[in-house]
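Q: what does this look like with adenosine-5'-triphosphate bound?
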Amino acid sequence: MSLEIENLRIYYQTLRGDVKAVDNLSFKVENGEIMGLAGESGCGKSTLSNSLILLKPPMKYVSGNVTIDDEPLPIHDFKGMNKFRYKKVSIIPQYAMNALNPTQKIGKLISDLLENHGTSFSTMEKEIKERFKIVELKEAVLDMYPMELSGGMKQRVVMVISTLLNPSLLLADEITSALDVSTQKAVSRMIVEFRNRGFVKSVIFVTHDVSVLYQIADSIMIMYAGKQVERASTETIVKKPLHPYTKLLISSLPEVGIKYSENPLKGIPGNPPELLTPPNGCRFRSRCPLAYEKCMEEPPLVEVMPNHYVACWKVENAND
Ligand SMILES: Nc1ncnc2c1ncn2[C@@H]1O[C@H](COP(=O)(O)OP(=O)(O)OP(=O)(O)O)[C@@H](O)[C@H]1O
Protein backbone atom coordinates (compact mmCIF):
# COMPACT_ATOMS: atom_id res chain seq x y z
CA MET A 1 0.00 0.00 0.00
CA SER A 2 1.43 3.36 -0.97
CA LEU A 3 -0.66 5.64 1.25
CA GLU A 4 -3.05 4.96 4.08
CA ILE A 5 -4.99 7.67 5.91
CA GLU A 6 -7.14 7.09 8.99
CA ASN A 7 -9.51 9.60 10.58
CA LEU A 8 -7.51 12.62 9.49
CA ARG A 9 -8.62 16.01 10.80
CA ILE A 10 -6.84 19.16 9.67
CA TYR A 11 -8.20 22.54 10.78
CA TYR A 12 -7.20 26.19 10.31
CA GLN A 13 -6.77 28.15 13.49
CA THR A 14 -8.43 31.56 13.08
CA LEU A 15 -9.49 34.34 15.46
CA ARG A 16 -13.10 33.31 14.93
CA GLY A 17 -12.42 29.64 15.75
CA ASP A 18 -11.32 26.51 13.89
CA VAL A 19 -12.14 26.07 10.21
CA LYS A 20 -12.75 22.34 9.82
CA ALA A 21 -11.26 21.99 6.35
CA VAL A 22 -10.50 18.25 6.49
CA ASP A 23 -12.87 16.54 8.86
CA ASN A 24 -12.31 12.87 9.54
CA LEU A 25 -11.07 11.46 6.26
CA SER A 26 -10.00 7.84 5.80
CA PHE A 27 -8.85 6.27 2.55
CA LYS A 28 -6.07 4.27 0.89
CA VAL A 29 -4.12 4.72 -2.30
CA GLU A 30 -2.61 1.56 -3.78
CA ASN A 31 0.81 1.23 -5.39
CA GLY A 32 0.46 2.33 -8.99
CA GLU A 33 -2.82 4.17 -8.42
CA ILE A 34 -3.65 7.66 -9.66
CA MET A 35 -6.42 8.93 -7.40
CA GLY A 36 -8.31 12.01 -8.54
CA LEU A 37 -9.60 14.34 -5.85
CA ALA A 38 -12.49 16.54 -6.92
CA GLY A 39 -15.12 18.85 -5.48
CA GLU A 40 -16.19 22.48 -5.47
CA SER A 41 -13.89 25.27 -4.42
CA GLY A 42 -13.32 25.35 -0.66
CA CYS A 43 -14.16 21.68 0.04
CA GLY A 44 -10.69 20.94 1.45
CA LYS A 45 -8.80 19.45 -1.49
CA SER A 46 -5.71 21.65 -1.19
CA THR A 47 -5.75 21.41 2.59
CA LEU A 48 -5.61 17.63 2.38
CA SER A 49 -2.83 17.62 -0.17
CA ASN A 50 -0.76 20.34 1.53
CA SER A 51 -1.12 18.72 4.95
CA LEU A 52 0.60 15.59 3.65
CA ILE A 53 3.80 17.49 2.94
CA LEU A 54 3.86 20.99 4.45
CA LEU A 55 1.63 21.26 7.49
CA LYS A 56 2.29 24.71 8.96
CA PRO A 57 0.26 27.41 10.76
CA PRO A 58 -2.48 28.46 10.53
CA MET A 59 -3.09 24.88 9.43
CA LYS A 60 -3.11 22.51 12.39
CA TYR A 61 -3.07 18.79 12.81
CA VAL A 62 -5.96 17.69 15.03
CA SER A 63 -6.00 13.89 14.75
CA GLY A 64 -5.46 10.90 12.53
CA ASN A 65 -2.77 8.57 11.21
CA VAL A 66 -0.93 8.62 7.92
CA THR A 67 1.31 5.81 6.70
CA ILE A 68 3.36 5.70 3.54
CA ASP A 69 4.83 2.42 2.29
CA ASP A 70 3.64 0.96 5.62
CA GLU A 71 5.74 3.43 7.62
CA PRO A 72 4.22 6.25 9.76
CA LEU A 73 4.39 9.66 8.05
CA PRO A 74 4.81 12.27 10.83
CA ILE A 75 2.83 15.07 9.16
CA HIS A 76 2.38 16.88 12.52
CA ASP A 77 6.19 17.10 12.96
CA PHE A 78 7.40 19.82 10.56
CA LYS A 79 11.11 19.01 11.07
CA GLY A 80 10.60 15.26 11.21
CA MET A 81 8.97 15.49 7.77
CA ASN A 82 12.25 16.71 6.22
CA LYS A 83 13.49 13.22 5.58
CA PHE A 84 10.26 12.33 3.80
CA ARG A 85 9.82 15.42 1.60
CA TYR A 86 10.88 14.85 -2.03
CA LYS A 87 12.03 11.31 -1.17
CA LYS A 88 8.72 9.82 -0.10
CA VAL A 89 6.15 12.57 -0.71
CA SER A 90 6.49 15.30 -3.26
CA ILE A 91 4.20 18.02 -4.58
CA ILE A 92 3.67 19.91 -7.79
CA PRO A 93 2.07 22.97 -6.19
CA GLN A 94 -0.99 24.84 -7.39
CA TYR A 95 1.08 27.67 -8.83
CA ALA A 96 4.01 25.54 -9.97
CA MET A 97 4.85 28.01 -12.69
CA ASN A 98 5.75 30.62 -10.10
CA ALA A 99 7.55 28.19 -7.82
CA LEU A 100 10.95 28.50 -9.49
CA ASN A 101 13.50 30.95 -8.10
CA PRO A 102 13.79 33.58 -10.88
CA THR A 103 17.45 34.38 -10.16
CA GLN A 104 18.75 30.84 -10.62
CA LYS A 105 19.32 28.88 -13.79
CA ILE A 106 17.34 25.64 -13.93
CA GLY A 107 20.50 23.48 -13.79
CA LYS A 108 21.78 25.26 -10.67
CA LEU A 109 18.39 25.00 -9.04
CA ILE A 110 18.31 21.24 -9.61
CA SER A 111 21.88 20.88 -8.44
CA ASP A 112 21.19 22.75 -5.14
CA LEU A 113 18.09 20.71 -4.51
CA LEU A 114 19.90 17.41 -5.07
CA GLU A 115 22.77 18.43 -2.81
CA ASN A 116 20.29 19.28 -0.06
CA HIS A 117 19.06 15.72 -0.34
CA GLY A 118 22.40 13.96 -0.21
CA THR A 119 23.09 13.46 -3.90
CA SER A 120 24.47 15.58 -6.74
CA PHE A 121 23.80 16.80 -10.26
CA SER A 122 26.65 14.74 -11.70
CA THR A 123 25.37 11.51 -10.09
CA MET A 124 21.91 12.15 -11.48
CA GLU A 125 22.87 13.81 -14.78
CA LYS A 126 21.94 10.92 -17.06
CA GLU A 127 18.56 10.53 -15.35
CA ILE A 128 17.84 14.27 -15.47
CA LYS A 129 18.53 14.43 -19.21
CA GLU A 130 16.43 11.32 -19.80
CA ARG A 131 13.50 12.86 -17.93
CA PHE A 132 13.83 16.16 -19.75
CA LYS A 133 13.50 14.16 -22.96
CA ILE A 134 10.34 12.44 -21.69
CA VAL A 135 8.67 15.79 -20.94
CA GLU A 136 9.93 17.19 -24.26
CA LEU A 137 12.32 19.76 -22.83
CA LYS A 138 15.64 20.43 -24.53
CA GLU A 139 18.83 20.01 -22.49
CA ALA A 140 19.57 23.69 -23.18
CA VAL A 141 16.80 24.52 -20.67
CA LEU A 142 19.25 23.55 -17.90
CA ASP A 143 21.22 26.66 -18.81
CA MET A 144 18.22 29.01 -18.82
CA TYR A 145 16.48 31.21 -16.26
CA PRO A 146 12.80 30.56 -15.47
CA MET A 147 11.80 33.84 -17.17
CA GLU A 148 13.14 32.49 -20.46
CA LEU A 149 10.61 29.63 -20.36
CA SER A 150 6.90 29.53 -21.21
CA GLY A 151 4.32 28.64 -18.53
CA GLY A 152 4.01 25.09 -19.87
CA MET A 153 7.79 24.62 -19.92
CA LYS A 154 8.12 25.82 -16.31
CA GLN A 155 5.36 23.41 -15.35
CA ARG A 156 7.28 20.52 -16.90
CA VAL A 157 10.52 21.58 -15.21
CA VAL A 158 8.71 21.50 -11.86
CA MET A 159 7.28 18.08 -12.72
CA VAL A 160 10.77 16.71 -13.37
CA ILE A 161 12.24 18.34 -10.25
CA SER A 162 9.52 17.10 -7.92
CA THR A 163 9.84 13.51 -9.09
CA LEU A 164 13.62 13.18 -9.49
CA LEU A 165 14.04 11.18 -6.29
CA ASN A 166 11.24 8.76 -7.24
CA PRO A 167 8.84 9.63 -4.43
CA SER A 168 6.26 7.12 -3.35
CA LEU A 169 3.44 9.68 -3.43
CA LEU A 170 3.13 12.64 -5.79
CA LEU A 171 0.61 15.35 -4.97
CA ALA A 172 -0.47 17.31 -8.03
CA ASP A 173 -2.61 20.31 -7.06
CA GLU A 174 -4.61 21.94 -9.88
CA ILE A 175 -1.61 21.61 -12.14
CA THR A 176 -3.63 21.86 -15.33
CA SER A 177 -6.09 24.66 -14.54
CA ALA A 178 -3.92 27.55 -15.73
CA LEU A 179 -2.95 25.82 -18.99
CA ASP A 180 -4.55 25.78 -22.42
CA VAL A 181 -6.38 22.63 -23.43
CA SER A 182 -3.63 20.95 -25.44
CA THR A 183 -0.99 21.68 -22.77
CA GLN A 184 -3.41 20.33 -20.14
CA LYS A 185 -3.64 17.07 -22.05
CA ALA A 186 0.13 16.85 -22.47
CA VAL A 187 0.77 17.49 -18.76
CA SER A 188 -1.85 14.92 -17.75
CA ARG A 189 -0.32 12.35 -20.11
CA MET A 190 3.10 13.00 -18.60
CA ILE A 191 1.79 12.25 -15.11
CA VAL A 192 0.54 8.90 -16.37
CA GLU A 193 3.88 8.27 -18.10
CA PHE A 194 5.77 9.04 -14.86
CA ARG A 195 3.61 6.54 -13.01
CA ASN A 196 4.00 3.93 -15.77
CA ARG A 197 7.77 4.28 -15.67
CA GLY A 198 7.80 3.95 -11.87
CA PHE A 199 9.12 7.48 -11.20
CA VAL A 200 6.26 7.77 -8.70
CA LYS A 201 4.35 4.95 -7.07
CA SER A 202 1.06 6.76 -6.62
CA VAL A 203 -0.49 10.12 -7.36
CA ILE A 204 -3.21 12.26 -5.81
CA PHE A 205 -4.39 14.51 -8.61
CA VAL A 206 -6.39 17.45 -7.28
CA THR A 207 -8.72 19.27 -9.64
CA HIS A 208 -12.04 21.03 -10.05
CA ASP A 209 -12.38 19.41 -13.39
CA VAL A 210 -13.67 15.84 -13.38
CA SER A 211 -13.27 15.64 -17.16
CA VAL A 212 -9.46 15.78 -16.74
CA LEU A 213 -9.70 12.92 -14.24
CA TYR A 214 -11.68 10.81 -16.65
CA GLN A 215 -8.61 10.70 -18.89
CA ILE A 216 -5.99 9.83 -16.29
CA ALA A 217 -7.31 8.71 -12.89
CA ASP A 218 -7.85 5.12 -11.77
CA SER A 219 -10.12 6.18 -8.94
CA ILE A 220 -11.87 9.37 -7.84
CA MET A 221 -12.66 10.70 -4.40
CA ILE A 222 -15.33 13.42 -4.21
CA MET A 223 -15.16 15.83 -1.27
CA TYR A 224 -17.85 18.17 0.00
CA ALA A 225 -17.34 20.66 2.83
CA GLY A 226 -14.35 18.86 4.38
CA LYS A 227 -15.87 15.38 4.11
CA GLN A 228 -15.59 12.51 1.72
CA VAL A 229 -18.97 11.89 0.06
CA GLU A 230 -18.08 9.24 -2.50
CA ARG A 231 -15.08 7.24 -3.72
CA ALA A 232 -14.89 4.58 -6.42
CA SER A 233 -13.18 3.68 -9.68
CA THR A 234 -13.21 6.49 -12.24
CA GLU A 235 -15.58 4.54 -14.46
CA THR A 236 -18.07 4.13 -11.60
CA ILE A 237 -17.91 7.76 -10.47
CA VAL A 238 -18.43 9.05 -13.99
CA LYS A 239 -20.94 6.48 -15.26
CA LYS A 240 -22.74 5.28 -12.12
CA PRO A 241 -22.38 7.84 -9.35
CA LEU A 242 -24.66 7.28 -6.35
CA HIS A 243 -24.30 10.33 -4.10
CA PRO A 244 -26.66 13.18 -5.09
CA TYR A 245 -23.75 15.65 -4.97
CA THR A 246 -21.59 13.51 -7.28
CA LYS A 247 -24.52 13.13 -9.67
CA LEU A 248 -24.92 16.89 -9.87
CA LEU A 249 -21.20 17.41 -10.22
CA ILE A 250 -21.00 14.92 -13.09
CA SER A 251 -24.11 16.25 -14.82
CA SER A 252 -22.75 19.78 -14.78
CA LEU A 253 -19.26 18.95 -16.02
CA PRO A 254 -17.73 22.26 -17.02
CA GLU A 255 -15.89 22.85 -20.21
CA VAL A 256 -12.27 21.86 -19.80
CA GLY A 257 -10.36 24.59 -18.01
CA ILE A 258 -13.32 26.42 -16.50
CA LYS A 259 -13.28 26.40 -12.70
CA TYR A 260 -16.42 25.59 -10.76
CA SER A 261 -15.92 28.82 -8.85
CA GLU A 262 -16.33 30.67 -12.16
CA ASN A 263 -19.15 28.48 -13.28
CA PRO A 264 -21.23 27.51 -10.23
CA LEU A 265 -23.04 24.21 -10.28
CA LYS A 266 -26.19 24.50 -12.29
CA GLY A 267 -29.33 23.34 -10.57
CA ILE A 268 -27.97 23.33 -7.00
CA PRO A 269 -29.15 26.44 -5.23
CA GLY A 270 -27.08 27.75 -2.34
CA ASN A 271 -23.45 27.45 -1.40
CA PRO A 272 -21.38 24.95 0.57
CA PRO A 273 -21.65 25.56 4.34
CA GLU A 274 -19.14 27.59 6.31
CA LEU A 275 -16.53 25.27 7.76
CA LEU A 276 -16.17 27.39 10.89
CA THR A 277 -19.51 26.08 12.17
CA PRO A 278 -20.52 23.30 9.81
CA PRO A 279 -24.09 22.00 10.20
CA ASN A 280 -24.81 18.73 11.99
CA GLY A 281 -25.67 15.72 9.91
CA CYS A 282 -25.05 15.57 6.20
CA ARG A 283 -23.28 18.76 5.13
CA PHE A 284 -24.92 18.67 1.72
CA ARG A 285 -28.47 18.42 3.05
CA SER A 286 -29.43 22.10 2.61
CA ARG A 287 -28.75 21.83 -1.13
CA CYS A 288 -29.75 18.23 -1.67
CA PRO A 289 -32.89 17.51 -3.68
CA LEU A 290 -33.33 14.20 -1.82
CA ALA A 291 -32.80 15.38 1.78
CA TYR A 292 -35.14 14.03 4.49
CA GLU A 293 -35.23 13.95 8.33
CA LYS A 294 -32.60 11.24 8.62
CA CYS A 295 -30.05 13.62 7.03
CA MET A 296 -29.92 15.54 10.33
CA GLU A 297 -27.68 12.64 11.41
CA GLU A 298 -24.27 12.31 9.86
CA PRO A 299 -24.27 9.57 7.21
CA PRO A 300 -21.41 7.07 7.60
CA LEU A 301 -19.20 6.27 4.63
CA VAL A 302 -20.36 2.82 3.58
CA GLU A 303 -18.85 0.39 1.07
CA VAL A 304 -22.03 -0.21 -0.92
CA MET A 305 -20.25 -2.36 -3.50
CA PRO A 306 -16.63 -3.57 -3.54
CA ASN A 307 -14.45 -0.45 -3.62
CA HIS A 308 -17.44 1.88 -3.96
CA TYR A 309 -17.89 4.06 -0.87
CA VAL A 310 -20.80 6.47 -0.38
CA ALA A 311 -21.91 8.65 2.55
CA CYS A 312 -25.65 9.12 1.98
CA TRP A 313 -28.66 7.84 3.93
CA LYS A 314 -30.80 7.64 0.79
CA VAL A 315 -28.28 5.39 -0.90
CA GLU A 316 -27.77 3.24 2.18
CA ASN A 317 -31.52 2.86 2.72
CA ALA A 318 -32.44 2.58 -0.96
CA ASN A 319 -33.71 -1.00 -0.57
CA ASP A 320 -35.69 -0.47 2.66
N1 LIG B 1 -5.23 30.04 5.70
C1 LIG B 1 -6.51 29.74 5.93
N2 LIG B 1 -7.13 30.19 7.04
C2 LIG B 1 -8.41 29.88 7.30
N3 LIG B 1 -9.18 29.12 6.51
C3 LIG B 1 -8.62 28.64 5.39
C4 LIG B 1 -7.26 28.92 5.03
N4 LIG B 1 -6.99 28.31 3.87
C5 LIG B 1 -8.13 27.68 3.50
N5 LIG B 1 -9.12 27.86 4.41
C6 LIG B 1 -10.48 27.35 4.39
O1 LIG B 1 -10.41 25.93 4.39
C7 LIG B 1 -11.43 25.38 3.57
C8 LIG B 1 -10.83 24.44 2.56
O2 LIG B 1 -10.00 25.18 1.68
P1 LIG B 1 -9.13 24.48 0.53
O3 LIG B 1 -8.26 25.54 -0.08
O4 LIG B 1 -8.48 23.27 1.07
O5 LIG B 1 -10.25 24.04 -0.51
P2 LIG B 1 -10.08 23.56 -2.02
O6 LIG B 1 -11.11 22.51 -2.20
O7 LIG B 1 -8.68 23.21 -2.29
O8 LIG B 1 -10.49 24.87 -2.81
P3 LIG B 1 -9.85 25.45 -4.16
O9 LIG B 1 -10.20 24.46 -5.19
O10 LIG B 1 -10.55 26.77 -4.32
O11 LIG B 1 -8.37 25.56 -3.94
C9 LIG B 1 -12.18 26.57 2.97
O12 LIG B 1 -13.33 26.79 3.76
C10 LIG B 1 -11.22 27.71 3.10
O13 LIG B 1 -11.90 28.94 3.25
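Residues 255-262 have pLDDT under 50 and may be disordered. Residues 42 and 64 are 21 Å apart (CA to CA).
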